[in-house]
Amino acid sequence: MNRLLMLVCLASCFQSVNAQNTLRPEWISLFNGTDLDDWIPKFTGFELGVNHLDTFRVEDGVFKVSYDNWNDFDGEFGHIFYKEPFSHYLLRVEYRFVGDQVTNGPAWAFRNNGVMLHSQAPETMTLDQEFPASIEAQMLGGNGEDERQTANVCSPGTNYVMNGELITVHCTNSTSQTFHGDQWVTMEIEVRGSELVRHVVNGETVFEYSDIQLDPEDPDAQRLLAAGASLYVREGYISLQAESHPTEFRKIELLPLPTSEPCLSLPCR
């Protein structure tokens, strides 16, 4: 190969690498560390956009679910939705539970929060709806004594497939360790349309499932199906919960993933 041809080949290679780098997706910070302008709250019994008792807030650069202004809890479950839907992505959150549960919070909600994935649009929720139709990556903190896995799966208004079986029970535990106290935990969730969801805790894969679909037996899902929604849920909104226990998030970021990979289950949805 002569010198000129070699230089042309090298230049072409550099251009190809630069083009790949230009097209490579970058992490998006869903939480800007300053305010919640990109997020929309919805509490049971309240209109969309009402941040009941200033529960969702930002303090000292931390996204907080706070119950400082609450006297007791009476079923006012809260969710706060990021402003746009996603389909294929890697979501990373760093969270911890702090303080005491608000008075009259349900026992199951002790050190309990979650990231709702592929959620219905917040404006489609009814006034008194408790949870959006979605798939939940559930966060649980330990009580100091007993085992209590985190990154579990709960499925309000949805079903999913695991190990070839359609799962219709509401919650299924992961294989994670238990995290007691107020320690920070990193949870990463890989989502590829309706085909694959993978939960990773502190670098360890603890849950994997596929074929996310609306539950035709659930009233909220029935409304969505009647309005023309597809049975298989390929995209949706991301939301965080307020279920009666104070929670803090110091990182909420998302890496878009390509949508061109072949589907991982048959038939392709």
Describe the structure.
Helices cover 11% and strands 36% of the residues. It has 269 residues and is mainly beta. The chain has a single domain, classed as Sandwich (Jelly Rolls), CATH 2.60.120. The strands form 2 sheets. Strands 1, 3, 4, 6, 10, 11, 13, 14, 15 and 17 form a 10-stranded antiparallel sheet that branches. A hairpin with a 2-residue loop joins strand 3 and strand 4. The radius of gyration is 21 Å and the shape is globular. It starts with a helix and ends in a 13-residue tail after the last strand.
Detail the topology: elements first, then pairings:
Elements (H helix, E strand, L loop, with lengths): L2 H21 L4 E2 L9 E5 L12 E4 L2 E4 L12 E5 L5 E10 L14 E8 L15 E6 L11 E3 L3 E5 L2 E3 L3 E2 L12 E8 L3 E6 L2 E11 L4 H8 L10 E6 L4 E10 L13
Antiparallel strand pairs: 1-17, 2-5, 3-4, 4-17, 5-16, 6-13, 6-17, 7-8, 7-16, 8-9, 9-12, 10-11, 10-15, 13-14, 14-15
In whole angstroms, the N-to-C terminal distance is: 49 Å
Order of helices and strands: HEEEEEEEEEEEEEEEHEE
Quaternary organization: single chain
How many individual helices? Answer: 2
CATH topology: Jelly Rolls
Report the radius of gyration as a whole number of Å: 21 Å
The fraction of residues assigned to DSSP E strands is 35-45%
**CATH superfamily heading:** Exo-inulinase, domain 1
For the sheet with most strands, the description reads: 10 strands, antiparallel
Global geometry: globular
Percent helix range: 10-25%
Strands, total number:
17
Name of the level-1 CATH class = Mainly Beta
Give the structural class.
Answer: mainly beta
Mean pLDDT: 91
Low-confidence stretches: 4-11, 16-22, 262-269
CATH architecture: Sandwich
Tell me the number of structural domains. Answer: 1
